[in-house]
Amino acid sequence: MLRIEVDMFSGRPNPVWIVTEEKAVKEVLAMAREAREGVAKPRTGFNGLGLREIRVETLADEGSRVRGVPAQFAVASAAAKDHRMTAELAQRIVQTMPLRSEIRLLEHELTPLDKKLRDLILERIPRDWEIFLPPKTRPTSNPRIDTTQDGKCRNCEYEISQFNPGFWNNPATQPYNNCYNYARNWRTNTFAQPGRAHGAQTGTMACNTVTTAAMADGLKKRCNPCLPQSEFPRRLMALVIDPGFDYHWYRHQRGGFWGHKPGSTAARNTDNSNKVITNPETCNRGGYTDFCGYFYAGKSVVIS
Amino acid sequence: MEVELDIFSGRPNPRWRVGEEVERRLRALEEAMPPAAAEGQPPALGYRGFLYAIAGERRRAFNGRIERPGRPLADRELLVERALLDTLPAELAPLRARVAAAIGGGD
Fold first, then answer.
1. Which of A33, A59, B21, B32 could make an S-S bridge to A1, C-beta 3.0–4.6 Å?
2. Quick check: B1 and B18 in contact, CB under 8 A?
C-alpha cells in the first residue's frame, strides 16, 4: 500500500491518495527502481512556493517491496540527480492518480481528487529545476572582494566581501535561503543544510555533528590548513549551536563586521541586541550559546 | 490552515496544520483587536513568532503584534500566540517551554 502526496499547496491540503491495488503498487515501485537517478530523499529539494516534490511512501510492513527502492522517496524533486528523469517519473505516477476519492481521506474535503486537479499537477511538474534554482556551477559572488591576511594565522589568506543584503532580502530569494546559504554565499533556493549535498546531513544539533556535516561539504577548519589561492573566493565562516535545537552561521564581511541571515528572515549585520556584529564569539546570539569555531569555505565547497 | 513556528535559523521551521475551528477563533480574536501603534521587530535569532494565513493573507504574530497586509493589529495579551502555542503537535514538545518563556506565559 502506498501513500502519494503532491507537495504543492501552501494554504490548502496537498493532493494525496492511497494506492492499495497490489499490481499498481508494484508498477510504481518498479518505475522508481528503473529510474533511480530520478528519485530523491523526501524534503531535500526545493522548499519554496509551488510544486516542491511528489512523495511516495510505503504504508504497510508487509506486501510489495522492491529491492533498491526506499520506503519513502520523492519524485519531481530538485534534489534528484536527473531532473528530466524525475519529472518523467512524476508524470507517470500522477497519470495513475484516481479521478475520484475511492479511499476517502481528510484532505479530500478541501482538496478533492478530480481530473482538473490531475491536469493542474501535470502542468506544474517542473521540467527544468534550473529555472527555479541558480546553476550549481556558478555560485554567487560579489565583485567587490578584498583578500586579507588571517589575523589568527598570518600565512593564511581569505576574502572578505562587501555586505550586500539587498541580494538576499527580496521575495524571490529571502524565504528560500538560510544562514548556511548566506555564510557560504551561495543562493541555492533550497534552504541548504550542512552535509546534504554529500549525503552527510545530521539531525543532531551539536558542534561536532554539524561541523562534520559541513566539512563533508568541503569546509575546512580555520588555519588548518590554509586554502590556496585557487580556491578564490575563500570565505571565513563561524558556526554556533543552540544545543539540541539548531545551528547558525556567520560570514566575515568587509568593514570589520560579520553578516548573517537567520533562517528565512532578512540578512543583516546586527545581533539580537541590534548591535553591529564585530565578533561572533561575543555578540548577542540568543539561545545559540555554543560557539563551535571558524571555517574557511573555498570555491569548491558545494552545498544544497 | 498551516502554521509555521518561526524559530530556527539553519533548520527549516516546524510547520503543522490546524483545523478550521482554530482559524475561526483567530478571526474572532482579530476582529476585537485595535490597530497596533509602535513598530516592533523580531530578534535575529530565536523565537520570532508564528506565521499563518487567513483567507490567503499571510500573518506574523509576534510579541503581541499581528503583522498583516494593511494595518497591523495589537494583541496586548498575546492571545493569538498563546492559542497557536496550544496547537503545537506533540512531536514538537521540546519547543513548547522555549516559546512559552518567550511569550511570557506558563507551559
1. A59
2. yes
Give A204-225 pLDDT, tens digit per residue. Answer: 999 999 999 999 999 999 999 9
**Rounded to a whole number, what is the distance in Å from the CA of B10 to chain A's nearest CA?**
5
Min CA distance, B28 vs chain A (Å)?
A: 19
For residues B9-30, b (16+ Cβ closer than 10 Å) or e, as one string?
A: bbbebbeeebeeebbeebeebb
Interface of A with B (CB under 8 A): 10-11, 13, 47, 178-180, 191, 193-194, 205, 210, 242, 244-249, 260-265, 268, 270-272, 285-288
Residue A139, pLDDT score: 42
CB contact under 8 A, B12 and A191: yes
CA separation for the pair A51, A46 (Å, rounded)? 8
Q: What is the DSSP string of B10-64?
A: SSPPPEEE--HHHHHHHHHHHHTPPBP-S-----SSS---EEEEETTEEEEEETT
- CA atoms of A103 and A225, how far apart (whole Å): 59
d(CA B47, CA B78): 14
User: Cell numbers at residue B75, please?
Assistant: 494583541
B4 touches B50 (CB < 8 A) = yes
Q: How many helices (H) and strands (E) does chain A have?
A: 6, 11
CB atoms within 10 A of CB A137: 6
| In contact, A15 and A111? CB cutoff 8 Å | yes
Decide if the complex's ipTM is over 0.95: no
Phi, psi of A7 (to 5 degrees): -80, 95
